[in-house]
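Let's sit down with a protein and look at its sequence and fold side by side. We need material for that, and I hope you will provide a protein of your own picking. Once you have written the record down, we can walk along the chain together.

***
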Amino acid sequence: MLDVRRMQVLRAVVTSGSVTAAAANLGYTPSAVSQQIAVLEKEAGIALLERFGRGVRPTAAGRLLTEHAAVIGRQVAEAETALADLRAGRTGQIVVRYFATAGADLVAPALARFRAEHPGVRVDLRLVGESAAADEEQADLTLVVRPRGATGEGVRLVHLLDDPYRVVLPKGHPLADRRAVDLAELADEPWVGSERPGPCLDAVLEACAAAGFTPDIAVECEEYATAQGFVAAGLGISLVPLLGLGSRHPQVAVRRVRGPEPVRSIHAAVRESSLALPAVRGLLSALQNDRPEQ
C-alpha cells in the first residue's frame, strides 16, 4: 500500500527538482528524503525518479504519483478547512428530534435564534417517531419528558422547563367558576384520558395518587385537541399540559390545578459526544433562553 506522506515527499522532490532542495523545504536531511523515496519505490514496485543533470526528474510512474499527491494534498487542505469550520460551529449538520406540543412555543423561537447565529449549519428537525428510544440514540439532541433528576446512558439530560397540567372542564361545569381546582375534587368525575402510556401519563397518575385516588378513564384519547372536544361534549373532564393548550375549544373552561399540581418536566437529551460541537451547544443555549413563559 502506498504511503500518503511519502507521496508528498515525492511531490516535493519533483516540484523542487532535487533531493537537496526538497529536504531544505521540508526540514529534513537529504538522506532522510532519499530513504523515503526508496521505500516509496519499493511500495510502488517501479522507479519513480531518474537522474537528470545535477538533479532528478520523475519517471512516468513518478509523474503519475505526483499528480495524485497534488490531488490528495488539496483534499487534505479542504478537509482541514471543513473540520475547522465544523469545530467553530460555522458549518455542519445537527440532528434534532422533538415532540409536537414542544414545537410552536419552545422549538420554533429557539431554532429562529439559532439560525440567525449559525446560518451555515443545517438542522435536521423531525418529530419523534413511534420508537422514541431509537430517535434519541440517533439524534444529537432530542426533546424528552423525564422526571426531574433523571439520568441517561450516553446522554446528558438538561432540564429546560416544567410544564404544568391544567384541568379542562365543560363550560357549564360546577367547578368552572373557580380560579383553581383541588385535584381531589376531580376524583369522582369521569375522565377523558389525554396521554398515552409513558412519562407524561405517569406525571398525572402520580399526582392523582398523591391526592388519594385513581382517575376513572371513561374515554381514552391520546391527542390534546381531541380530548378538548370530548370534554366540550360533556363526556368528562381532562388534564392537559399548558403547552398542549395552544388552541382552546370555545366550549371548555381551563383552570389551574393544585394539591398537588401535576407537572411534566421537559429536558433536552444531548448525546455526550455531540456536546463537543459548538452548533449543538448553541442550539441548547437557544432552547434554554427561549423557554415559554408559564
